[in-house]
Structure formats: C-alpha cells, structure tokens
Design goal:
- By secondary structure, the protein is of the alpha+beta class.
- It has a single domain, classed as Protein Transport Mog1p, Chain A (3-Layer(aba) Sandwich), CATH 3.40.1000.
- The protein is built from three helices and 17 strands.
- Strands 1, 6, 7, 8, 9, 10, 11, 12, 13 and 14 form a ten-stranded mixed sheet that branches.
- Strand 4 and strand 5 form a beta hairpin.
- The chain is globular, with a radius of gyration of 20 Å.
- The protein starts with a strand and ends with a strand.
C-alpha cells in the first residue's frame, strides 16, 4: 500500500492508497526507498522462500509532492454537477447517499512491541520493526512522501505510521505526525540523519513553490543498532526544529523531526534511516521524547518473534 498524491478521483491530497502493495517482498514500487543488501536490510538467506515468477505490476500514476490543494478529481466532479444543475439538468429523482466501500486488507507480519504499552510497526516480512505510541496508527504496508520540486528536495518513507489522520476538516488526508524508513546514499550516519531531517522538514512544511521552511538542526548523538548476529551498527540521532513557511490552515506554527541513521554491514555507500515527525504547540502533540523513543525502538526481529495477522477491513467514504 502507498500514500501519495495522484490524479485519480479517489485520491486524497498528498497521499495515494495502493492496496495492491501489501509489503515490499515480491514487488516494490520504483520510487520506494531501496534498502541496501546486508544484515538488517533484507530477509536472511536461510529464511528466503524459493523464487517465484511475478507478473509485472501495472505502472502507477506519477505522484507529486504533498499539497494542501483540494481533491482535484472530486472538485472537477462537483464543478460538472453544478454546471448541469445550472442549465436545467438536475434530476427529479431524490439523491441516494453513496454507500461506503469496505476493503479487506491482506495479512501482514506482526511482532511484539518492546516499548511497554506501545504498538509495533513491522516491515519486510517482519525482519525489522519499530514502535509507536498508542494514539498512532500503524500502516506497515504504506509508502508515503513528497515529490522533489524546485522548492523542495523530496523524500519517501516506507513502513509507515500516522498520528491524528484527518484532523483538519478541509483536508481529509491531514496528519499531525508520521513515521517510517528511508535510505540515504551516504555512509556517514551523521550526514545521513541530518540530510533526512532537513529534506523532510522542507518538503512537508513548505508550500509548493516555496519559500522553504526553516529547519534548525541540533548536534547529533550516538546510538547503536544491534543485528541478529549480535554485532552493533554505529548510528547517529539528529533532531530538527521546523518553522513551516506554509501558512495553510492545516499547518502548525512549529514542528519537530527526528531521525536515526545507521550503517550497513555490506554496502559502504548507504545508510538506513528511521524517522518520526510531528506538529508541535497543538492539542495532543507528540512530544520530543516520544519521537526519540520511536526512532530508538528500531530493531531487527528474530524469526521466532514473527507471526502473521489479518488487519480488520478498512472503510472508505
């Protein structure tokens, strides 16, 4: 599943629902971040299933970076309907409310949370996970992000979770916070974390044509990520304070972005990055400590701790 802006009528601004992408095993979108090979980034060889032939997936519509614009498809439908009514085309038949669409969700891997009272977000066949607070909604098969433009660098995150979806009445796809993973083409975890925080802060909290949001980066702190083999990958955590330049009604006055970047045992040119971001100075805002605990909770999951679960159906109106 993915969340991005698209031109289809059932889209929501800034996101795309692609239920066919149940995870990133046999098929991964071309614009999804690619985790480098090596311990912690891919399914261990001894646990891989036999290769199977997979039919090419249909091309996904080109996505654009997050926007505060209204639903393009629905706005067009409303305009056409208004013109028809204005020219005497209104039907005498009473309108019938559209019934909600209920979609089943594919089974997904589940792992136990390591933070007491929190919920886990597991990805890549359950080989890795991180935890989020109780109010957050895990969407592990979701890809979300913002396209690169002249005013923003763009970034995309996999294995997502969200806080307060749809909080803004004028924008149903609004979120008070989010989390997920990406990769950076740089080996130094400090550089990777700082770039990811800056890219997300500018891409999410700036208007389409700029000016860019102001992102103030704090000094990085040390961390480690332990692999299933017991070795520890060096990591760095960076927090950025964001002053949005977008003055839209759904935008906060301030936001925080946290990232923990860590190296790979086999690819010296890339870093994995787990991120969490949230609006600040609003009711129910995620705290700085919560964002730090989200990124610090990232871990690799032994096979014995992985299980399959079927999420409840989702209702779309």
């Amino acid at each position: 599943m993915g969340w991005f802006r698209r031109r289809r009528d059932d889209a929501t601004p800034g996101y795309e629902d692609n239920a066919a992408l149940s995870g990133f095993g046999g098929y991964q979108p071309s614009d999804a971040p690619r985790f480098p090979s090596g311990t912690g980034f891919e399914t261990p060889p001894e646990e891989r299933a036999e290769p199977r032939r997979i039919a090419p997936a249909p091309k996904r519509p080109k996505w654009r970076r997050s926007s505060r614009a209204p639903w393009v498809g629905l706005a067009l439908i409303a305009l056409i309907a208004g013109l028809v009514n204005a020219f005497g085309g209104k039907s005498d038949k009473p309108s019938t409310p559209r019934a909600p669409v209920v979609a089943t969700q594919a089974p997904r891997f589940a792992v136990p949370a390591v933070v007491t009272g929190w919920k886990s977000v597991a990805g890549k066949e359950g080989t890795y996970a991180y935890d989020v607070p109780p109010r957050w909604s895990p969407e592990p098969s979701t890809l979300h992000g913002w396209e690169k433009t002249a005013a923003a660098p763009g970034i995309s995150l996999i294995t997502s979770a969200f806080l307060d979806s749809g909080f803004c009445p004028s924008r149903s796809a609004s979120k008070r916070g989010g989390s997920g993973l990406t990769t950076e083409d740089v080996a130094d975890p400090e550089v990777a974390a700082r770039k990811a925080v800056s890219d997300l802060g500018v891409s999410h909290y700036s208007p389409d044509n700029g000016p860019p949001a102001q992102v103030t980066l704090e000094p990085g702190t040390d961390a480690t990520v332990e692999t299933l083999k017991g070795t520890k990958l060096p990591a760095r955590i960076v927090v950025g304070s964001v002053v949005p330049s977008d003055a839209g009604e759904c935008m906060p006055k301030r936001a925080l972005v946290a990232a923990m970047a860590f190296g790979s045992t086999s690819d010296a040119t890339k870093s994995g990055v787990v991120m969490a971001y949230a609006d600040q100075d609003v009711a129910g805002a995620a705290t700085r400590d919560e964002l730090l605990q989200i990124v610090r909770s990232y871990r690799f999951v032994p096979a014995a701790d992985r299980s399959m679960t079927t999420p409840p159906p989702k209702t779309y109106r």
